[in-house]
Design goal:
385 residues; alpha+beta; eight-stranded mixed beta sheet; four-stranded antiparallel beta sheet
């Protein structure tokens, strides 16, 4: 698989908080639907925003296994939080997508396919782990042997403002997965925020011509080596603050060699089979289709919706489910995510965002599951050459 296009800054400037909101205003004036972080239902979620007033300024999140809560930061940081229950997958690979509608007209049947929407969208506040997750979805839904036209259309007219993480969360382990905390993939704008009572500012780096044009009319000053050094120091600090770590050495072979490990059953005794981990995962892409008709039988439509390998019907074939127990389903999910994903798509299916840990009702931690299997494995994975 080809490596992600690296971020190459074309322009590096300092923008003050009083002017940073103008970027959102400019995007909306240019016809973009702007999607970014906002406060709702006790969490920081992604939704359409109209301006800086909608951002979670001054709020952060505290996350641990099975725990999430919002608390005031004590400053006015715009992006001083970690990832929430949603990912950008929701806006690229829709949870509910109508594929076609049909209508009977006498003996004839008229079928109308659902045209893919290609409206202009801007994502504000994308973290490095989620950028890597979008890259994973690109390999699966865009660059594979079969392209999803709806995903391709949404991906086409996309403006991305990414943010370097200024803090690590309690369930983050992106440093272990080489997916963060610094944004290294190509985006339109890369932002690093330095909140302060006396010198609150954003270092904004344009990674595309569109990004450079976007900040052209905004008051700014040039960034210098001091600012670049501050970014490097901050990224090193955040990488050392990760709430979780995972030893990925030979993990695919480790899981392949331990299909009958007792840990799977031990985990199944806690697992509720609720599928929360797959719903919040930024790379899980499994779906099913549903056909419905009206009461007269003259109109019908087919809809695609998200599904999960944790549900019994997902693995159903003639004669029953091939994964009837929770232990088999959890083993399949984790082995696919960290192991067979490499065989299929040339990368890991995990980006270290920690969502599956935070939003598991019983706090199952995949980093701990891998560690437990590694420490008690009867079969050692081959050493890296």
């Amino acid at each position: 698989m080809a490596a992600p296009t690296p971020f190459v800054p074309k322009q590096q400037v300092i923008i003050q908080p009083a002017h940073f909101g103008a970027i959102i205003d400019s995007l909306r004036e240019d016809g973009f639907q702007v999607i970014g972080p906002t406060l709702r239902d006790g969490a920081i979620v992604y939704d359409e925003i109209e301006g800086e007033k909608d951002l979670p300024i001054g709020w952060t999140d505290v996350q641990e296994a099975g725990k999430y809560r919002l608390v005031p930061r004590g400053d006015k940081a715009w992006f001083g939080y970690n990832v929430g229950p949603q990912s950008w997958k929701r806006f690229l690979h829709s949870p509910l997508q109508r594929l076609w509608a049909a209508k009977r007209n006498g003996q004839d049947m008229e079928i109308t396919p659902e045209h893919a929407s290609s409206s202009k969208r801007a994502f504000v506040g994308v973290r490095s782990c989620d950028l890597h997750a979008i890259g994973v979805l690109d390999r699966v839904l865009l660059d594979g042997s079969v392209t999803d036209p709806h995903y391709a259309a949404r991906r086409k007219n996309l403006f991305i403002i990414a943010v370097n993480c200024a803090q690590a969360g309690g369930t983050c382990f992106c440093a272990s997965m080489n997916t963060g905390p610094k944004v290294t993939a190509a985006v339109d704008l890369r932002v690093t925020e330095f909140p302060s009572d006396t010198d609150h500012h954003f270092v904004v780096e344009a990674g595309s011509e569109a990004g450079a044009q976007m900040i052209e009319s905004i008051p700014r000053s040039p960034a210098d080596k001091v600012h670049h050094r501050a970014i490097d120091d901050l990224m090193e600090q955040v990488a050392g603050q990760m709430g979780r770590t995972m030893d990925t050495t030979g993990v695919k072979d480790l899981l392949y060699a331990n299909r009958e490990h007792p840990r799977w059953q031990q985990t199944a005794e806690r697992c509720l089979g609720c599928a929360n981990c797959t719903m919040v995962c930024p790379t899980c892409f499994c779906t099913t289709v549903e056909d419905v008709t009206d009461l007269t039988g003259t109109e019908a439509q087919r809809t695609r919706r998200w599904d999960s390998c944790f549900t019994m019907p997902f693995s159903y074939i003639v004669g029953g489910s091939v994964r009837p127990g929770i232990s088999a389903r959890y083993r399949h999910w984790l082995t696919h995510k960290l192991g067979s994903w490499w065989d299929q798509f040339g990368s890991s299916g995990c980006v270290g965002c920690g969502r599956c840990i935070t939003w598991c009702p019983v706090g199952i931690d995949l980093t701990e599951e891998v560690r437990a299997i590694r420490e008690t494995s009867a079969v050692s994975p081959p050493k890296a050459v």
